[in-house]
Amino acid sequence: MAFRLLIDGKLVEGASRLDVINPASGTVFETCACADEVQLEQAIAAAKRAFPGWASLTQAARGDCLDRLADAVQARLDEFSSLLTGEQGKPLNQSKGEIAMAVATLRYFATQDLPLQTIKDTEEGRVLEQRTPLGVVAAITPWNYPVYLLAVKVALGLVVGNTMVAKPAPSTPLTTSLFGEVAADILPPGVFNVIIDANDLGSKLTTHPDVAKISFTGSTSTGKRVMESAADTLKRVTLELGGNDAAIILDDVDVAEVARKVFTAATVNAGQICLATKRIYAPRSLYDALCDELATLAQKAVVDDGLKQGTQIGPVQNKQQYEKVLDIIEEAKTLGTVIAGGHALDRPGYFIAPTVVRDLPDSARLVREEQFGPAIPVLAYDSVDEVIERVNDSEYGLGGTIWTAATDRGLEIAMRIQSGTIWVNKPVELPFDIPLGGAKQSGIGRELGIDGMKEFTQGKIINVARHS
Ligand code: ADP
User: Fold this and answer.
1) CB-CB contact of 211 with 51 (8 Å)
2) Domain Aldehyde dehydrogenase: where (predicted)?
3) Which of 240, 293, 370, 447 is labelled catalytic?
4) Which are the contacts of 124, defined by CB distance < 8 A and separation ≥ 6?
5) How far apart are CA 450 and CA 70, in angstroms?
C-alpha cells in the first residue's frame, strides 16, 4: 500500500491506517500509514545509529545528497502538487509554487557551509569556533505548508550533519510520506525518518531523551507545550509559531494598487500562513475607499476546489479550523460591519466566503487573535503614533508590512514595530540567505540564512595557546 512510514531506510506499513480528508469535499480520499510508539522508538533509534556516520561526512558530501533529493522531488513535481492540493486544499498553482520553493531550499542549503571561524588571532594564541551537529532532530510541521516547511528543516538540519525524525500534522501526512519515499532511495538509512501519527506521538517525540533538538512550526499554544517537553533534557528548540501581522497603510498610497497587494497577502493559502496579513490599518482619510476596494476584491475572488483551474482561494484545511474561523466571524458580525462574505459557502467541504469586516473595536477576536482563515478586519487610525501603539499591542510579533509612497517614512515606522521581520512596500518575501524568526510569543530562534543553520549546531570555542 502507498503512503508508508520511513524507518531506518525502509518504507514500512504503520501499526494502523489514518484517514486523510480532502478539505474541498470534507470526505476521506486517501489513507496513510500511522505509527505507534514502538515505531517511533525504532525511528529515533535508527536516527541515533545513523548520526555518527552522517556527521563524519564532509559538508560537500551531505550537500550532494540534498541536491539529489531536490532533483528527485523536482522529478515528481506534478504528483507532489496534486497530492498537496488534495490534502491541503490550496490552488494547484500555489501547490506547484510550494514544491518549487521546497526544491530550491534544498538546493540552496546543499551548497552552504559553516566552516571553522577564527574569532581572535593574537600573540597569545588563537580562538576558534567550531560548529558541530547536535544529533537527532525532531522536525514537527503543521498543515499549512507541509512540504516547504519540511524542506527547510531537512535542508538546514541535515546539511550540517544531524539526523532527523520528521512528523507532519495528521491532517496533511501524504506529501511528507511521499517525501520519505523519495528520500529512501537517496539518503543513507536512518538519516531521515518519517513518523506519521494521529496527534498522539508529538509529545513522546519531544520528550524523548535521545532527541537533541526540536524544530517546530505550529501554533503558539502547542509551541509552549513543546518548550515544556524540551526542558527536562535541555533540548535545543526552534519555535516558529503564530502571528497577527498588521499591514499599515500610509496616507500617500495608491489605494487600488495597495488593496490588491494586501488582499493577496491576507488570502493566499486561504489566509493560513503564519506570515499572512491578519489586520489592516488605514488612515481615516483613505478608510472608506480602501474598505470598498477590499470588499470588491473579496466578492470577485474565485473560491473553489484547488484542483479547478482559475481557483484563487481554496477551502480551509480542516474542520476544526473551519469552525474556529466561522466562530470568529460570528463575533465580528455583532461588533462591526461585514462588507464582504461573512458566511460559509453552501456546499460540501470547508469553504468560507472571503470576508472583510470594518468598524470593529480592537478587542474583537478577529483583530486580537490569529484567525488563520480568509477573513480580514480593516481598522481606521488617526495618527502614526497611535497606529504603531495599536499594532504593537499584541502578544504576537512575527511579521508585518508597511505601504507608503515614501520609503523613508516606511523605514522609520518599521524601526518601531515589535516583530521578527517587517517588509516595506513588499509582500512577504523569504530569501534563503535572510534569517526568519518571531519576536514575543511568535517564536524563538531563527530559520533560514546562516543563523538558521547555526541553530542546528553547537558552537564550540577552541582556545589555543600560541606556544606550548
Ligand atoms: P494546529 O493547532 O493548528 O492544529 P499544532 O500547532 O497543534 O497545529 O500542530 C503542529 C504540529 O504539532 C502537528 O504536527 C501536531 O501533530 C504537533 N503536535 C501537537 N501536539 C504536540 C505536542 N504536545 N508535542 C509535539 N508536537 C505536537
Assistant:
1) no
2) 16-461
3) 240
4) 465, 466
5) 20
Q: Which three cell numbers stand for residue 395?
A: 502578544
Query: Residues with Cβ < 8 Å from 55, sequence gap 6 or more?
Result: 132, 133, 161, 162
- Is 319 a pocket residue for ligand 1 (Cβ < 6 Å)? no
Cα dist. 232→134, 190, 212, 235, 438 in Å?
A: 16, 25, 11, 8, 24
The tens digit of pLDDT for each residue in 181-202 reads: 999 999 999 999 999 999 999 9
Question: Which residue, 390, 389, 388, is CA-closest to 402?
Answer: 388
Ligand 1 binding pocket includes 167 (Cβ within 6 Å): yes
Q: What distance in angstroms lies between residue 455's CA and the mean position of ligand 1's atoms? A: 21
Any atom of ligand 1 within 6 Å of the Cβ of 235: no
E strand segments, 123-275 = 125-133, 136-140, 163-167, 192-194, 211-217, 236-240, 245-249
Q: Is the pLDDT of residue 1 over 80?
A: no
Secondary structure letter of residue 170 according to DSSP? T
Ligand 1 center to 107 CA (angstroms) = 28
Query: Whole-model pTM above 0.85?
Result: yes
Cα distance between residue 162 and residue 148, in whole Å: 19
Question: Is 240 labeled as catalytic in the residue annotation?
Answer: yes
Query: Is there a contact between 128 and 204 (Cβ–Cβ < 8 Å)?
Result: no
Backbone angles phi, psi at 438, to 5 degrees: -95, 155
Q: What is the rounded average pLDDT for all residues in the chain?
A: 98
237 lines ligand 1 (CB under 6 A): no
Ligand 1 centroid to residue 218 C-alpha, Å: 6
User: 59-75 and 146-159 helices cross at what angle (nearest 10)?
Assistant: 160
Which residue has its alpha carbon closest to ligand 1 atom 15? 169
Task: Tell which residue, 2, 15, 9, has the closest CA to residue 198.
Answer: 15
Assigned C-alpha cell, 96 = 506547484
Q: Each residue of 196-224: pLDDT tens digit? A: 999 999 999 999 999 999 999 999 999 99
Structural domains in the chain, CATH included, are: 5-241+438-464 (3.40.605.10), 245-424 (3.40.309.10)
Written as nine digits, the cell of 149 is 516547511
Q: Using a 6 Å cutoff on CB, does residue 377 contact ligand 1?
A: no
pLDDT score for 468: 79
Distance, CA of 316 to CA of 212 (rounded, Å) = 34
Atom of ligand 1 nearest to the CA of 203: 24
pLDDT confidence of residue 172: 98
In this structure, which residue's CA is closest to atom 14 in ligand 1? 169
